[in-house]
Design brief:
By secondary structure, this protein is mainly alpha-helical. The chain has 3 helices and 2 strands, in the order ααββα. The protein starts with 9 loop residues before the first helix and ends with a helix. 7% of the residues are buried.
Length: 74
């Protein structure tokens, strides 16, 4: 069944990010790398924001890998 929830808990966000710790998730959030939604005292994450974060990390890794190949060819 397709999960259509608009917001997920920090615990679920950690799971979706490959099992990172909640402390690591909070550090990423505090640094502005992953936005959160606050409702009262509770903190939630949008699955779409997690996907954007993953895409950005993958893009950065590809750029570093490509740069490393460019230096090897020189």
């Amino acid at each position: 069944m397709l999960d259509t929830r608009l917001l997920i808990s920090p615990r679920e966000a950690c799971y979706r990010l490959g099992g990172i710790s909640q402390r690591h998730l909070w550090n990423l959030t505090r640094r502005g790398l992953i936005p959160c939604v606050r409702l009262g005292r509770r903190v939630f994450y949008r699955p779409a924001d997690l996907e954007v974060f993953i895409e950005n990390v993958a893009r950065q890794a590809e750029a570093v890998e490509h740069e490393g190949r460019s230096h090897d060819a020189a």
